[in-house]
Prior knowledge:
By secondary structure, this protein is of the alpha+beta class. About 40% of the residues lie in helices and about 35% in strands. The chain has helices at about 5-15, 20-35, 40-45, 50-55, 60-70; strands at about 75-80, 85-90, 95-100, 105-115, 115-125.
Amino acid sequence: MRIVPGVLALALVTGCAIDTAGPARAAERFRAALAAQQAEAACAMLARKTAENLPDRGQSCPEALRELNLGDPGGVTEVTVWGDTALVRLAGDTLFLQRYTDGWRVKAAGCEPVPDLPYDCEVEN
């Protein structure tokens, strides 16, 4: 009988755990694509509206991403999740992600904090 309350308590704690691994994996895949200069793959990891809003003057998403030259933002250093939204800090960048039915996607990248404002992002929707 003593095991049952312990198992119930563990189930309750585990059920409330926030999944930071999903956004971290998505950010790492995006980082790896940027580092390898695979703009097509990086564009495929963007949220639909972000990918649509990125191109300018008739460019494709990959062309616009290459032009921004975000480079390798380094590894994941921190993940914060609020429901279906996540902020992932990398060594040299901050990403905002959203969970969709097909997984986590990057909504904003190339983000830097701005005094009295949240962030200024190179890529956003």
